[in-house]
Design brief:
Blueprint: E1 3-5, E2 12-14, H1 27-45
Antiparallel strand pairs: 1-2
The structure holds zinc ion (ZN).
Zinc ion binds near residues 6, 8, 9, 11 and 25.
Length: about 60
């Protein structure tokens, strides 16, 4: 069976349809990784203000 290394703890994980946590070894590792993503990368990605200015058309007067 093909195995992959858990991205979180590097443990060998069977790559099978039954492993619903793949590529992680366990629910715990999966949640830890998602938590890190949510706490760090997601926040950084949204730290900068949106590069958007409302399109205000000057009204003819
Ligand atoms: Zn793991």
């Amino acid at each position: 069976m093909k195995t992959v290394a858990c991205p979180r703890c590097q443990k060998a994980v069977p790559w099978s349809a039954e492993n619903r946590f793949r590529p992680f070894c366990s629910e715990r590792c999966k949640h830890m990784d998602l938590g890190a993503w949510a706490n760090d990368e997601y926040r950084i990605a949204h730290a900068e203000p949106p590069d958007y200015e409302p399109a205000v058309s000057p009204k003819p007067d």
